[in-house]
């Protein structure tokens, strides 16, 4: 099994987690905070400007869901040209980012994003890098949209349906 860990920041982490949890090849998922100033942080501190991004930590079987497929799907649920904003959510914690523990996966992701960006007339504003100061979010944020089906989400229902259909094709 070609397993790897990736951290995706795509606005509010509730919908991003739900979307990726539906995909075949995603073995584990949890929401948390990354790339801020400390290793222990709360949602309140993130909202107050700790510098962390809301992220989804994924463990992926890349033999089932390739990194290119994963990043292509990520681009479908975010606006890759919007800085520090996704949907109605505005602020540094809602920036778009792709982070790794592994430098080789980071390098591969940068090449893939460069290739995917080549079809556009402007550059993506997706932060990439190694993950720093990751902290798992509070339990009530984990699987939030499963626990609260009517909860807020910046991702449209059509995207969740696509994720379900995509998973079935694998």
Question: How is this structure best described in words?
Answer:
The chain has six helices and eight strands, in the order E-H-E-H-E-H-E-E-E-H-E-E-H-H. By secondary structure, the protein is of the alpha+beta class. The protein has a single domain, classed as 2-Layer Sandwich (Peptide Methionine Sulfoxide Reductase, Chain A). Helix 3 packs across helix 4. The radius of gyration is 15 Å and the shape is globular.
Secondary structure: elements and pairs:
Layout: E1 3-10, H1 13-21, E2 26-34, H2 43-47, E3 53-61, H3 67-77, E4 85-86, E5 89-90, E6 96-100, H4 103-117, E7 127-130, E8 135-136, H5 144-147, H6 157-169
Parallel strand pairs: 6-7
Antiparallel strand pairs: 1-3, 1-6, 2-3, 2-8, 4-5
Helix pairs in contact: 3-4
CATH architecture: 2-Layer Sandwich
Number of helices: 6
Tell me how many strands there are.
Answer: 8
Tell me the strand percentage band.
15-25%
Biggest sheet, strands in spatial order? 7-6-1-3-2-8
Tell me the domain tally.
Answer: 1
Largest sheet: 6 strands, mixed
**Given the C-alpha coordinates, what overall shape results?**
globular
Fraction of helical residues: 25-40%
Quote the CATH topology.
Peptide Methionine Sulfoxide Reductase, Chain A
Order of helices and strands: EHEHEHEEEHEEHH
Rounded Rg: 15 Å
Structural class based on helices, strands and sheet pairing: alpha+beta
CATH first level: Alpha Beta
